[in-house]
Structure formats: structure tokens, C-alpha cells
Automatic annotation (TrEMBL):
InterPro entries: AAA+_ATPase, ABC_transporter-like_ATP-bd, ABC_transporter-like_CS, ABC_transporter_ATP-binding, P-loop_NTPase. Residues 6-234 form the ABC transporter domain. PANTHER family: ABC TRANSPORTER ATP-BINDING PROTEIN, ABC TRANSPORTER ATP-BINDING PROTEIN NATA. It comes from Methanobacterium spitsbergense. It holds the Pfam family ABC_tran. SMART domains: AAA. It is found in: Membrane. One of its GO terms (cellular component) is membrane. This is ATP-binding cassette domain-containing protein. Its main location: membrane. It is a multi-pass membrane protein. GO terms for molecular function: ATP binding; ATP hydrolysis activity.
Length: 313
């Protein structure tokens, strides 16, 4: 039996005849970063709210660590919303202490935990700085620290990198990885940044029109779905280009082979895995490859293939 931290079983949510979420069943494993993607209006926010107990489903149920969600202990889940939920007139340290007190964290545990969060999220030098004077990146990192001050087993991150510069984004990404790899937390991540979902997620669920349409690892999604990788190849003898095109076109999972400005463009699912066979066909023609490059299929390609739209449409 799979060791799930959260199980959504046949979740459905209806609003006056509109079905926002339609019979959704998902299992989120303990200690994984679980990406949750979908176009605007797809039902992902409604789904997550039901899965963490903020919204009652019309039907279906949610099991958290073997218990009905209605019976889990306070503080099991930490929420980091996209909107900054900060006290502008408090310092970073005062904010963390206040949130810890709300969760009744004992002082002997609270103090070292506050300091560790300030260190891990590069806020130590701003510990006594009033929140209103922090940069946008610092505020977003503090927003995350407030969500995890009570050491929740499950952390929900809603667009955590929104508006961040690349340096701040890397700090945040490293901390998210550490929550999984060092602390063993289960992280649910929603994001419109495809590279973020790809880099951080162990598995990704893509939903549209309230239904789950695909659930797999980023690597498997890119291998199996989308327009395919592109191999751009230049032969030592361009006169052999058409011969190679005829050799490769009938091959299984080759989507297209065309000549562009004296080079050959080969589009195929999991093209990297097919490179050895491509090279065998080149050798058969008695030519060599002078130049080659590969552009891998992206998660953006996969998303558009499955939903027919961009992430923010």
C-alpha cells in the first residue's frame, strides 16, 4: 500500500450548478514536493483548499496521514499564501515570535527555531528590521518562515516565487528542497513558473476543468507528451541530407524530419534516448556529424499539449 501523506478521494465541489472540481482522486506521498498545475479557473485552488481543510467538499473525503482531515491535530499543515500576510510594523523576529506564540510553541523551542529560520532564509541581518522596510524578496521569504514556524508536517506553497529576482528565487528553491530532503516534510507547490515546477517537483498533477488529466514525474511527462525534443544536425556531406531524412522518417516515435538551411531537424519524443540509433543511420550512409545540438522537450510544451493553453490564460 502506498505511503500517502494526503489522499483525496473522489473530491467534488459544486457551486450553484457549476462543478469546480469533478471527482478528483490524488495521493500525495510523504516527503515529496508535489507540483499542482492548471490554467486559471481549472479548479486547482479549490482542490487544494479542500485537501487542507479550508473548504468543505460537496462530496468525497480527504485523509491526512491515515486520519480524516476533520480529526488531524492543529498545526499539521502550514500555509504560505501568494498574498503577503505580514505585520508591517513588527520586526522579522517579532513577527516570528508572535506566530510561534499563536501556535503555542514553547519558548525553549521557539527561540532557536526563530534563529534557524532567520539563518536559513538569509534574514538574520534583518532580524530587528521593521517589515515595512524590507525588500519584496525578503518579505516573501519571511512569509514562508511564518508558515513553517510551528514545524508542520505538510507545507502548502502558493506561487512562492511570485515577483522574486533570480537570486532570491534560488534561496527559496534551496529552502524548499531542504524541507523535503533534510526535514522530511511534504510540500504542495502551485506555480506558474514552469522551470520552478520542473526543478522542484518529484511529481506533478495537471488539472483542467476540475479533472485530473495527468499525474507523473516531470521527466516522464516530458518524455511521453508534447511536441518532442529537437535534434539539430549538420552532416559532413549535405548531399546526403535527403538520404538520412528517408532513413529516419519511418522510425518509431519520430514526429518529423526536415531540412532547414542545409541542416537536419529531427523532432521526436525522448530524442536523447534515440540518438544512438540516429547515429547508426548516419554511419550507414558513410558520413559524419560535424555539428549537433539538442533542445529538450519542456514542461511548457507538455502543459500546452494537455490543456491547449498557456498557464495564465
Amino acid at each position: 500500500m502506498m505511503d500517502y501523506m494526503i489522499e483525496a478521494q473522489d473530491l467534488t465541489k459544486k457551486y450553484e450548478g457549476l462543478t469546480a472540481v469533478d471527482n478528483l482522486s490524488i495521493g500525495i506521498k510523504k516527503g515529496e514536493v508535489f507540483g499542482f498545475l492548471g490554467p486559471n479557473g481549472a479548479g486547482k485552488t479549490t482542490s487544494i483548499k479542500m485537501m487542507v481543510g479550508l473548504l468543505r467538499p460537496t462530496s468525497g473525503k480527504v485523509i491526512v496521514n491515515g486520519k480524516d482531515i476533520k480529526n488531524i491535530e492543529k498545526g499539521t499543515i502550514g500555509m504560505c499564501p501568494q498574498e503577503l500576510m505580514l505585520w508591517e510594523n513588527l520586526t522579522c523576529k517579532e513577527s516570528l515570535n508572535l506566530m510561534a506564540d499563536m501556535y503555542e510553541v514553547p519558548k525553549n523551542i521557539r527561540d532557536p527555531r526563530v534563529q534557524k529560520l532567520l539563518d536559513d532564509l538569509f534574514l538574520s541581518e534583518k532580524a530587528d528590521t521593521v517589515v515595512s522596510k524590507l525588500s519584496g524578496g525578503m518579505k516573501r521569504r519571511l512569509n514562508l518562515a511564518l508558515a513553517v514556524i510551528h514545524e508542520p508536517e505538510i507545507v502548502v506553497l502558493d506561487e512562492p516565487s511570485e515577483g522574486l529576482d533570480p537570486q532570491s528565487r534560488r534561496v527559496l528553491w534551496n529552502y524548499i528542497r531542504a524541507m523535503r530532503d533534510v526535514e522530511g516534510k511534504t510540500v504542495i507547490l502551485t506555480t506558474h513558473i514552469m522551470d520552478e515546477a520542473d526543478q522542484l517537483s518529484d511529481r506533478i498533477a495537471i488539472i483542467d476543468h476540475g479533472k485530473l488529466i495527468r499525474l507523473d514525474t516531470p521527466a516522464n511527462l516530458k518524455k511521453e507528451i508534447g511536441e518532442g525534443d529537437v535534434v539539430d544536425m549538420k552532416l559532413s556531406d549535405p548531399l546526403k541530407n535527403q538520404d538520412l531524412i528517408q532513413e529516419l522518417t519511418p522510425q518509431e516515435d519520430i514526429i518529423s524530419v526536415v531540412e532547414v538551411k542545409g541542416r537536419i531537424n529531427i523532432r521526436a519524443l525522448n530524442a536523447i534516448g534515440k540518438l544512438p540509433k540516429m547515429m547508426q543511420r548516419v554511419e550507414k550512409l558513410g558520413v559524419v556529424v560535424e555539428d549537433i545540438s539538442v533542445r529538450q522537450n519542456t514542461l511548457e510544451d507538455v502543459f500546452i499539449e494537455l490543456t491547449g493553453t498557456g498557464l495564465r490564460e
